[in-house]
Amino acid sequence: MASADSFILTYHSLDESGSVISVTPQLFRRQMAVLNASGRKVVPLELITVTPNAAAITFDDGYENFFEQALPVLDDFGFPSTVFAVTRLCGQRSAWAGSGPGKPLMDWSQLRQLWSHRVSVGAHTATHADLRKLAPEAAAGELDESRCEIEQRTGRKVRAFAYPYGVADAQVRQLAGERFDWCCSVELDFVRAGADPAFLPRLDMYYFQAAARFESLVAGKAEQYVAARRSLRRIRAMIPFARF
Ligand SMILES: [Zn+2]
Questions:
Q1: CA 142, CA 150: separation in Å to the nearest integer?
Q2: Which of 15, 148, 155, 240 has a 20 to 30 Å separation from 210 between CA atoms?
Q3: Confidence at residue 244, expressed as pLDDT on a 0 to 100 scale
Q4: Where are the alpha helices (DSSP H) in 58-157?
Q5: Ligand 1 center from residue 40 Cα (angstroms)
Q6: Could you give the count of Cα atoms lying within 13 Å of 193 in the half-sphere of its Cβ?
Q7: Where do the structural domains in the chain lie, given as residue ranges?
Q8: Would you state the pLDDT for residue 240?
Q9: What is the band of 241 on the pLDDT scale with cuts at 50, 70, 90?
Q10: Ligand 1 centre and the CA of 59: distance in Å?
Q11: CB-count burial class (<10 Å; 0-12, 13-18, 19+) for 30
Q12: Distance from the CA of 195 to the center of ligand 1, in angstroms?
């Protein structure tokens, strides 16, 4: 059964900076080629919980380099994907706790063009707020504002969401689950049968930069590695320092 597990890949920025949220454009193209050669099905996020042995591809924050670096590669392989946009910052630079010096984010004209490339735009709140730190009404406001703004500006229904920093408590999960059909966390795991659509696990590509790691993942042989990284992350999460 292990080999039938599906997974969601998480990318942020495609650039050469070497930051924890960056993968180089060259590595991204190589990974997509490996995924393509593996024969594993690449499905839209909307189908990941009902498709065994599949992969879905997601990009958090909506960096402009998605448009320049990722889109042509995804088009070449015909892979669908989902981009999670921070709606009040579209066309500006990332500027939230932990974002460092900031990187340019796609504007609305770019986001509108994505739909014709099999890229759906999901919500990532209005300001990239840690929703756990907000009163319930304010958290709901972040969710509603981001969904409505994308729907109004692109004319498409928004059904997917990614938690900023991947974090949510029970209340935040409930608020998001009421509003979106698929909510992505950064819990490092495969999507198994019965996965909670209000808190879907994903695999951050930070952990798969070594060629052999990514190859073993798409071959369905990364269970042990993912379990080990997950334990380490849980321990580290108890220590207060910057996480992305
Ligand atoms: Zn984010």
A1: 12
A2: 240
A3: 43
A4: 64-65, 71-77, 108-114, 136-154
A5: 27
A6: 5
A7: 2-237
A8: 63
A9: low
A10: 9
A11: middle
A12: 22
State the helix-helix crossing angle for 25-38 and 211-218, rounded to 10 degrees.
Answer: 30
Q: Hunting for tokens 């990514």 — which residue is that? A: 214
Torsion angles phi and psi, residue 14, rounded to 5: -105, 100
The upper half-sphere exposure of residue 137, i.e. CA atoms within 13 Å in the direction of its Cβ, equals 0
Q: 91 CA to middle of ligand 1, Å?
A: 15
User: pLDDT-derived band of residue 81, with 50, 70 and 90 as boundaries?
Assistant: very high
Is the pLDDT at 242 greater than 60? The verdict is: no
Cβ-proximal residues to 177 (8 Å cutoff; 6+ apart), any chain: 183, 197, 198
Query: And the tokens for 64?
Result: 């402009």
Neighbours of ion ligand 1 (CB under 5 A): 60-61
Q: Which two tokens stand for residue 31?
A: 């990974």
Q: Can you tell me which residue has the tokens 């198994």?
A: 192
Would you state the pLDDT for residue 2?
Answer: 41
**3-state class (DSSP) for residue 121:** strand
Q: What is the 57 CA–ligand 1 centroid distance (Å)?
A: 15
61 Cα: distance to centroid of ligand 1 (angstroms): 5
* pLDDT range class, residue 101, cuts 50, 70, 90: confident
The amino acid at 194: G
Q: Is the dihedral of CA 53, 80, 144, 89 positive or negative?
A: positive
Place of tokens 């709606």: 87
The CATH fold of domain 2-237: TIM Barrel (3.20.20)
Of the candidates 124, 122, 128, 154, the residue with the CA atom closest to the CA atom of residue 45: 122
pLDDT at 234: 82
Which residue blocks in the chain are alpha helix, DSSP H?
A: 25-38, 64-65, 71-77, 108-114, 136-154, 170-179, 211-218, 223-237
